[in-house]
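re: ur question from yesterday

yeah so i grabbed the chain u mentioned. its 140 aa long if i counted rite. heres the sequnce exactly as i have it in my notes:
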Amino acid sequence: MAPFCVRCLFRRNANKRFKSRLMKNNVKKHKKGGIKNMQEKYEKLTADMKEIGAEQQNIREAQRQVREKFEGVANECEELKRETRFIIQQTARTQVKLALMFQIVKASEQADHATVSTLTHLLREIVKRENEERQASDES
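ran it thru and got these structure tokens back, copy pasting raw so excuse formatting
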């Protein structure tokens, strides 16, 4: 049994020496190629970083354009809201004026001259205010 153990020890030592030689050779090869490999990786990373920087710049530009378009759309929306409010006000005033005119016609058919006079005066005041507002908006 002793010789078997000695052989095992001899084989283990031989394997260790063989493996250590392989490792040394691999380390040397790795070190020599490692510098080139590192330089290549560095150059590749530098190129990638430049490419990413250019892409980020393009993204920023696209975001700026989208922001400008969005602001333009928001401004148009506000303008449309103002115009819509103005049209609604005009429609309401027109309806009031039509109702007054209808009341004037009814009162004149009934020969109620006091009511006709009052309603006519009211209608003139409304038209006068509208003209003043138009002049003020034209000046500004």
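noticed a couple things. The two ends are 116 Å apart (CA to CA). also The chain is about 95% helix and 0% strand.
anyway ttyl
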